[in-house]
Task: structure prediction
Amino acid sequence: MSWKITAFAPRSVIEGALLAHEDAFDWDPDIVISGSEIAEDKPDDWQLEAWLAHKPKKADKDALAALFTGGAPKFTVEELPETDWLVASQEGLEPIRAGRFYVHTPEYPALSAPGVTDFVIPASQAFGTGQHATTAGCLEMLTHMKAQGLVVRNHADIGTGTGLLAFAAMTLWPRALATASDIDAVCATVVADNAEANGVPLGARQGELAMTIADGMEHPLLEARGPYDLIMANILAGPLVSLAPHFAKALAPGGSLVLAGLLETQEAAVRSACRRAGLRLAARLVKGDWSILWMRARRKQA
Result:
């Protein structure tokens, strides 16, 4: 049994609620929320959806209402049939082509085109399939970095989720040390399954992926395997701001940092945190409402 609470409001109101949720560090993790436009021809009409495993209580509704400034919109509560909605919502998603990569679910065949790497990422509980604009943007940015001649001998994907960005970096720099981490222990199995499906070797040697569960950069394995030529983090703006000095500390001189998961409206705060940590902007791209940043650490003075 699962339940859903839906609220309809203008885009700015829903985005404001999503930002408030991002900063709500005491948020109940059993309440999963998302925001989206109702229809392509109505870009300013949005909906906020919240999924719960139990019938919503007053405290649940109050928590959602508190995300809205100036009063919450009307909530609609409905009981959902016994379906894995996270998986069902991702089934049949159109494949994406981003940079040198083609990402698809098992329902679609591989592209099998010269110079293109295929990744199959099944719809998995609590994780996306690479269709999100931020993931596609990261794949494009990594491809651009490789084309610019960036040399990477050691890289890490922080908040890896499915492992996709780590797999992509391993394709572009096949002889590098590769590390992936996530705060959610479920990711260990998800990454292992996806690595097997895509022929990605796991292990601690060059060309193999070492996976660990860690909160940010604070983990013995992440510390021992640094410093890194490249760190990737497709998470949320709030954690990116707080982790900026930790990323900078873990980078080798001249090292690169790819950041995503931030709205374009949040870019200034993230870039400011990176500047304070001694990082400079090398490149940026925007996918829809989302920014993808390539930051670089200073090189050692001669």
Observations:
- Residues 88-92, 124-131 have pLDDT under 50 and may be disordered.
